[in-house]
């Protein structure tokens, strides 16, 4: 990718070739100095004066770079389009693509990245930026193809392995995700890499090939999350999700006292973010629901007071179902259905089938067989799982 120094040299060379007033060369140098010092608005003011006499595509790219640092992605796009009217360059298209992605216009972003690649297919950042947009669209297989292209050009760029690991994680290819995150931390000793190594192990239903026993896996996960926490503490940055994951892992190792200590640290820490606090409360509720349903209900209600999301309502409904509070369980599951239809919810199908399944069970317990059959049919409509089909057959036999 073109550097700011190369950009400055290109503009100065253009001014020199056209025998412009030397003051514009001084102004260009001053604008770059101001940008370096973080004086973006003053740099833009000078750029506007330069553009009255100098018409160069790289001036618009530089202008777009400043707008990008100011967070004004709409102006970035406009500046780059003006630059493209003068000359097509891969970096102008890439800058537009990155801004489109930031504006949640990923399809347009990918079009820009493809145009950039047509002009220069040897710049690894173009494939990386395209892969990020594909991942944001949940097109994880396509994203991995682009990430692999990045690796073929520049195998030492750490972020590629982190983001590729995330795509593999979302595809539930946990072994490959694990290897990708291991490569990432070998290149960059980063807390997020260790967090995801621990999370991949924790989320893997069938284990990671590297480990022979589940206890061995969870001990490794604990080691990784502790490394992440150590780096986090070194820079004095508290992140509740790290301690929550550590607590979840400790529960899997039957180290409940230590797990409760981690959860309580999050719950009682004034620096816990709302998101981190609700994760701790919901995970604590999930882990103790079989042993202390009333306390689990209290924790999930606290989480719901912070944020109403469908998974929390489903968990609350399941606890109420176990407590045989069927009327309130129905209210909670119906609320989950209402929330899960949010277009931004990417887990909508799994949550719908879960809610319909339990609504069917609740209605069965209340002897409303017709309603129970209707709900299990809804669950089958989302995903035809064997347990749903078997429940339907049983209900229809009554």
Notes on the protein architecture:
The chain has 398 residues and is mainly α. Among the domains are: 1-87, Serine Threonine Protein Phosphatase 5, Tetratricopeptide repeat (Alpha Horseshoe), CATH 1.25.40; 308-398, Tetratricopeptide repeat domain (Serine Threonine Protein Phosphatase 5, Tetratricopeptide repeat), CATH 1.25.40.10. Helices cover 78% and strands 0% of the residues. Helix 4 (57-69) runs antiparallel to helix 5 (73-86) and helix 18 (310-322) packs antiparallel against helix 19.
CATH class of the domain at 308-398: Mainly Alpha
CATH architecture classification of the domain at 308-398:
Alpha Horseshoe
CATH fold topology of the domain at 308-398: Serine Threonine Protein Phosphatase 5, Tetratricopeptide repeat
* Helicity, as a percent range: over 70%
Beta-strand content bin: under 5%
Category from helices, strands and their pairing: mainly alpha
Could you tell me the mean pLDDT?
A: 89
- Along the chain, the helix and strand elements come as HHHHHHHHHHHHHHHHHHHHHH
Poorly predicted regions = none
Overall radius of gyration: 27 Å
Shape: elongated
